Amino acid sequence: MRDLLQYVACCLAFFSAGFLIVATWTDCWMVNADDSLEVSTKCRGLWWECVTNAFDGIRTCDEYDSILAEHPLKLVVTRALMITANILAALGFLSLLLGLHCVKFLPNEPLIKVRICFVAGILLVIAGVPGIVGSVWYAIDVYVERTSLVLHNIFLGIQYKFGWSCWLGMAGALGCFLAGAVLTCCLYLFKDLGPERSYAYSLRKTYSHAGMSMAKSYVPPRTETAKMYAVDTRV
Amino acid sequence: MANSGFQLLGYFLALGGWVGIIASTALPQWKQSSYAGDAIITAVGLYEGLWMSCASQSTGQVQCKLYDSLLALDVHIQTSRALMVVSVLLGFIGVVISVVGMKCTRVGDNNPVTKGRVAVSGGALFLLAGLCTLTAVSWYATLVTQEFFNPNTPVNARYEFGPALFVGWASASLIMLGGSFLCCTCPEGERHSTQQPYRAGPASASASAAAREQIIKVPAPMRGDPGL
């Protein structure tokens, strides 16, 4: 059960880290709404703004000005948050790989491996926070911009809605949260049920249990056992 | 005999090579317009890839267009595409398989001979992927060179190697290096089994097979490398 949970968390972490990275570097954070009078798709991202013509398929991209130029605060902060989320999620995934049970890293110390998994879970949760903040903030900003345009009865110009990169960012952040939750909470719940303490430990435990039950069923007085010991030593 | 560190090194080299192959497949800069002529057009830089052709203007805008028709494309572009996609797929299978076969994982630990064979086959897949990439990239480069030195090509319409070609060469060599590292970890059991018939001498076939099995099976758990 614990192994299965670890694999589920590993897959989740892989895909959500991938989603976050793809979301950061693709250019469709906001896309023009269907009801605008355009024959082309306009996508704006964190780094590029692209226009794809619907008829001939030519795609023109324009990079935003140099990083030191004036940028809206939303853009800069979202960039920073997403890059932080990328780095943390990648770190969390890598440390999770080291902590997996089927990888022979520190094979004799299962407790340390469990701790590595726990740390990876915490890293993933921490990575999810900037990811969700960045993407949701961007989405809210797009929404506010659009509603203010509608409120002022401005129907000219381009109106934007959320693009797929934004959704990917949210999905990646949620996946990070989920993987972190699985790694921290569920692994903690299943900590006692886990059969794989390490073979030596479990064997020793069962032996001692057996010995104790034997001793209880016998209920021998201490003198008798002492005699047996004595006999053994004499032989 | 290679240890698990050697295997890991090979695996990560091959992983890097695979990522590079994906990058070079997707990049549009397989060939780019050359400024070797006397009339230098700096306003527009053209480049072409496997999937699209792009024009980068001096204003900072980049215009790209996907190739329209699949069947009207040049043969070498289609072949390069096919080879690159095949090598990406082979690399993917290799990445998955050699995780199972490497000594640092616990999957299939009880028969290390099979595990070693799985690792070797993963390495072979990496080698194949590298060969495919190398073929595609080198063929494309040869054609670009031929076109460049063809006297019929107008001077200002010449193309030369783009960055994607160099990325492709680098990643092909990386993945082949990693694959050969993985292939070097030939399982020890195979050696024993090849030596066995000489040692067994004129025994009956079944007896020698049994003996061989014993030889393989007995040292197996003891040889379990503690890994890393």
Please describe the topology of this protein.
The complex is a heterodimer of chains A (about 240) and B (about 230).
Chain A: H1 2-25, E1 30-32, E2 40-44, E3 48-53, E4 58-63, H2 73-99, H3 110-151, E5 160-162, H4 164-189, H5 199-218, H6 222-234
Antiparallel strand pairs in A: 1-2, 1-5, 2-3, 3-4
Helix pairs in contact in A: 1-2, 1-4, 2-3, 3-4
Chain B: H1 4-26, E1 31-33, E2 44-48, E3 52-57, E4 61-66, H2 75-101, H3 112-149, E5 159-161, H4 163-184, H5 188-200, H6 205-217
Antiparallel strand pairs in B: 1-2, 1-5, 2-3, 3-4
How does this structure look, described?
The complex is a heterodimer of chains A (235) and B (228). By secondary structure, chain A is an alpha+beta fold. Chain A has a domain at 1-24 and 71-192: Butyryl-CoA Dehydrogenase, subunit A, domain 3 (Up-down Bundle). Helix content of chain A is 65%, strand content 10%. Chain A has 6 helices and 5 strands, in the order αββββααβααα. In chain A, strands 4-3-2-1-5 form a 5-stranded antiparallel beta sheet. In chain A, helix 1 (2-25) packs antiparallel against helix 2 and helix 2 (73-99) packs antiparallel against helix 3 (110-151). Chain A is elongated. Mean pLDDT of chain A is 80; it is low at 194-216. By secondary structure, chain B is α+β, with helices and mostly antiparallel strands. Chain B has a domain at 4-28 and 71-184: Butyryl-CoA Dehydrogenase, subunit A, domain 3 (Up-down Bundle), CATH 1.20.140.150. A 5-stranded antiparallel beta sheet of chain B has the order 4-3-2-1-5. In chain B, strand 3 (52-57) and strand 4 form a beta hairpin. In chain B, helix 1 runs parallel beside helix 3. Chain B: Keywords: Cell junction, Cell membrane, Membrane, Tight junction, Transmembrane, Transmembrane helix. Chain B: One of its GO terms (biological process) is paracellular transport. Chain B: This is Claudin. Chain B: The chain crosses the membrane at residues 6-27, 82-102, 123-141, 161-184. Chain B: Pfam families: PMP22_Claudin.
